[in-house]
Amino acid sequence: MHTIDFERLALCDGMAVLDLGCGQGRHIHGLYYAADMTCLGMDLSFEDVLHTREGFDAYPDFSDDRGQCYGLACADALHLPLPDASLDRVICSEVLEHLPDYTTALAEISRVTRPGAIFAMSVPRAWPERICWNLSEEYHNTPGGHVRIFDARVLRRDIEETGFRYLGKHYAHGLHAPYWWLKCLLWARRDDHPLILAYKRFLEWDIISRPLLTRVLEAVAAPLMGKSVVMYFERVEHDGR
């Protein structure tokens, strides 16, 4: 399940790509097979990095036939262990809402990207996220939870101020918003309530089978109530050109 649209990244052989906050690997696994690139995954959670590695181990490695490779690291978004201007693409999906000091993370992303690089990011969309916060205090008031609700216009401005030019946006996961509303409403039984389990099976069917029905429903629902807002930027020259 990709939140970022790879078609908007214009991926090419020879690129260096970072999935910052890679979690359990849903984006970096896809990036690895998208082109002959160096794919880097970084996350603060060592357990998630291990899970991502297991995902690579479970599938064939075509590195003998192609030029792609990957690397994984447990790293802090506020202090990226990478040289200046070393990356062609950066993905940061559903990460910034967890960081008290997200502006330092944006500055680090700016530092490690080359002029012309594309930065793709996503955060929870404001109004679906507010419903979650209103339904459950525990949803966001837990260790590692969401520390803010972003205004997309403010976040866009913050990113532009670090040296990026805005390219566009879209919304994603319209079918997922009601699932999270249910989980927040029934927080005490979020893992075993029959209604939540039934909706989870529906989402799994959508992700695995991609039937026409759910593709049409998602196309309608995403602009209206997509849980994530996704924005794309291009790194400009340091003098702003």
Shape descriptor: globular
Question: What is the radius of gyration computed over CA atoms, rounded to a whole number of angstroms?
Answer: 18 Å
User: What fraction, in percent, of the residue positions are helical?
Assistant: 25-40%
CATH names the topology of the largest domain as Rossmann fold
What does this molecule look like?
The protein is 38% helix and 22% strand. The chain has helices at residues 26-32, 46-57, 102-112, 126-135, 137-140, 152-160, 177-185, 194-209, 212-225; strands spanning 16-20, 38-43, 69-74, 87-93, 113-124, 164-172, 228-235. A 7-stranded mixed sheet has the order 3-2-1-4-5-7-6, with helices on both faces. The chain has 2 domains: 6-124 and 143-171 and 227-235, 3-Layer(aba) Sandwich (Rossmann fold); 174-225, no CATH class. It has 241 residues and is of the alpha/beta class. Strand 2 (38-43), helix 2 (46-57) and strand 3 form a beta-alpha-beta unit. The mean pLDDT is 94. The longest helix has 16 residues, at 194-209. It is globular, with a radius of gyration of 18 Å. It starts with 15 loop residues before the first strand and ends in a 6-residue tail after the last strand. Helix 4 runs parallel beside helix 7 (177-185). It has 9 helices and 7 strands; from the N terminus they run βαβαββαβαααβαααβ.
In short:
The protein has 241 residues and is of the alpha/beta class. Helices cover 38% and strands 22% of the residues.
Highlighted features:
9 helices, alpha/beta, Rossmann fold, 2 domains, 241 residues
